[in-house]
Amino acid sequence: MTACAALYPLLADHCRSNEERILGTQSYISDKLSENRWRLAIECTEDGLWDWNALTHEAYYSPQWKAILGYQDHELANDFDEWKSRIHPDDLAKTLELMSEHAEGESESYLNEYRLRHKDGSYRWILARGKVAERDEAGRALRIVGTHTDVTDRKASEQSRLDAEEQLWSAFEHAASGMALVSGQGRFLRINESFSRITGYSVQKLLSITFQDITHPEDLDRDVGYLQQMVAGEIKYYELEKRYFHQEGHIIWMNIAYVRS
């Protein structure tokens, strides 16, 4: 064997080794560039970015993540406990459970709405999204990354709407006049006590029938005709005097006003 022939396998191995190192370096650089672009894109929005090492509990919280809670970048430590200590007590167990479920592969992503304590002592509602970015060979989560969106204003609007609906239904239930919510087919969906008292039927009985069942036959066509116009969107309101059959069998006259909701 010549010296050149003896050196060829060594040179080939050396070239392959260099090529693998180059490819590995290129892959690492590509991954870092992709990650940096992602972080830059997130930090240009109003969302906060978090990056958690599931083994060491070290974490990265972007300046915007901290700003959502009223802090400058240097005022909050980058560790897991800094975040955990700020979770509202009523949300803590659920939040940790959802994070654990995702880390263990029981969910496609981590998605949660919960409250974090602001610098001023108030709580901000946060929409958190996250996903495992790296696992070891055994499938254990090594790194989880995600975003925080401040949804406090939306939650306040939702609560205001719920409060308004509660006040409306309270007025409905306690009105001196008989009131009912009916479907497009005339079925009673909700009845107040006054309507039940006026007609003599129990609330449970009324909820099992339609208004057609207790309407006088001579008033039925006109009433149903108006209802069909309302369902079709041709009218939003109508009012008429009509006769109902009382539960005891006699006729009662009522002035009925219908409003499309």
Structural class: alpha+beta
Q: Report the major sheet.
A: 5 strands, antiparallel
Count of all domains: 3
* CATH fold category name of the largest domain: Beta-Lactamase
Low-confidence stretches: 21-34
Report the portion of residues in β strands.
15-25%
Spatial strand order of the main sheet = 2-1-5-4-3
Radius of gyration: 33 Å
What's the count of strands?
9
Distinct helical segment count: 9
Written as H for each helix and E for each strand, in order along the chain, the element string is HEEHHHEEEHEEHHHHEE
- The top-level CATH class of the largest domain is Alpha Beta
Overall pLDDT confidence: 86
Helix content: 40-55%
Write the layout of secondary structure elements.
Layout lengths: L2 H41 L4 E6 L5 E3 L1 H6 L11 H5 L4 H15 L6 E8 L5 E13 L5 E10 L1 H23 L5 E3 L5 E4 L1 H7 L3 H4 L4 H4 L2 H15 L5 E9 L5 E9 L2
Antiparallel strand pairs: 1-2, 1-5, 3-4, 4-5, 6-7, 8-9
Task: Describe the overall structure.
The chain is of the alpha+beta class. The chain has 3 domains: 1-41; 45-156, PAS domain (Beta-Lactamase); 175-259, PAS domain (Beta-Lactamase, 2-Layer Sandwich). Helix content is 46%, strand content 25%. Strands 2-1-5-4-3 form a 5-stranded antiparallel β-sheet, with helices on both faces. A two-stranded antiparallel sheet has the order 6-7. The protein has a two-stranded antiparallel ribbon with strand order 8-9. The radius of gyration is 33 Å and the shape is elongated.
